[in-house]
Amino acid sequence: MTTSGTPRRASEPLVDFLERFVASAQFQQVFEEGMRLVEETADYLDGPGREVARGLSRDDAMTYATESMRLTTRLMQMASWLLLQRAVAAGELSEQDAKREQENINLPALAQQPNETIIARLPRELTALMGRAQRLYERILRLDEMIQARHAAPEGGANPLAGMFGRIEAEFSSGLRKKSDSNGK
Questions:
Q1: C-alpha torsion sign, points 122, 129, 131, 84
Q2: Residue 45 and residue 70: Cα distance in Å, rounded?
Q3: Which domains occur in the chain, in start order?
Q4: How far is residue 61's CA from residue 19's CA, in Å, rounded to a whole number?
């Protein structure tokens, strides 16, 4: 059914909820959360984190440096993804251009998390930032999967169930014809 109450035809395109989401206040919230996390992480790593790292043992300082670089890389990739989606929603970038740009962003490669032994050696502030980044990453990854599924949809935005709707409609039509033929005899 459409919003007017009339049945939607199988040939009509489905509503693109993701397109609406990217233009929504919810997306703006995810965007702002991501940008805020980038700033907070940079402030921590350039300030208090630098002081904390100086007080660590050589091995722990190496672990700290490795994990802070991973965190920074993850945040930059997520920020790039968010900026890309916002540019598409604002009409500043075509979906084709965005698709090409997205090839430079490798979200699945960011999934690797350090084990608990490594996390236990890191300062609490850094692990808190890592946890927040992980949660944001998981949200962005789900959104990205939705976008990729949309791009894999049939050409022209056709309803992927159109064939099924057509068969159902044919069955109902056939059944109605049989019924009217038997009533007419």
A1: negative
A2: 12
A3: 17-152 (1.10.8.930)
A4: 44
